[in-house]
Amino acid sequence: MKFSILTTFGAALFACAVPSTTAFAPLLSSSTRSCSTFSSSSSSSSSSLLTVFSTMADSGVPPTESAPASSVDDAVIPTKLPSDVGFDYVPLAGALASGDLVQADQITRDALIVISGAKAKGRDFVYWTEVKNIPSTDLATIERLWQQFSGGKFGYSVQKKKWKQSKGDFEVFCKKIGWTTQDGEVERKKRWFGASEFIYDVKKAPEGHLPLTSALRGTSLIKKILEHPVWENDDWKKQP
């Protein structure tokens, strides 16, 4: 079974020149303090869970195509995708089910901006202090989808496991989940701008590689996401 996705993004892009030698950590929001701001919003959705139609404007996603996963043809999109704030997760489910990890990653970033309350305040990025506002219901829905369509390889709970294995060392953590690369004798963070160096392929990417979270403003944001109360037990795994 093949899926197409119904997601309409309106986007505004403001970017400064970025030196080719500059290394960037992955982005959570569509904004960066130093160089660029992306503004995107999604409108839903589908009259059928079997066919999800798609139109997508340029929303700042990296110019990288996902490698289709061999297992998605028979994937079934869940019929219940709960949200405490009324967010529509069908586009995310459709992107993941079709193996479009680039789009799924972008939708996840956009979702966090909305469900944290940042969007309502007129911002297109999330402060670490706003993570506590993200409903457990919504994080659980996002996580179940990433887990389902990656065979348990991607998701925040996987990243939390890698974080614990790294004993809270961010550099070790980045290396474990493939957010670093070797550039000659120098190990650096992978670049997102231009030709993305991240891996949008379930088979080739390390465990926990996706979804991407910003470290441009420091590590507090990802720490708070991984410390969210939803991960304190396994209730998030329960299907609604």
Characterise this structure.
- The N terminus is likely disordered.
- The protein is 26% helix and 10% strand.
- The radius of gyration is 17 Å and the shape is globular.
- It is built from six helices and four strands, in the order ββαααααββα.
- With 240 residues, the protein is an alpha+beta fold.
- The strands form two sheets. The protein has a two-stranded antiparallel sheet with strand order 1-2.
Keyword list:
alpha+beta, 26% helix, 240 residues, two-stranded antiparallel ribbon, globular
Calculate Rg over CA atoms: 17 Å
What is the percentage of strand-forming residues?
Answer: 5-15%
The helix tally amounts to 6
Give the overall form: globular
Mean pLDDT: 76
Fraction in helix: 25-40%
Count of beta strands: 4
Distance N to C terminus = 24 Å
Q: Major β-sheet, in short?
A: 2 strands, antiparallel
* Low confidence ranges: 1-64, 69-74
Strand order of the largest sheet: 1-2
* Order of helical and strand elements: EEHHHHHEEH
The assigned structural class equals alpha+beta
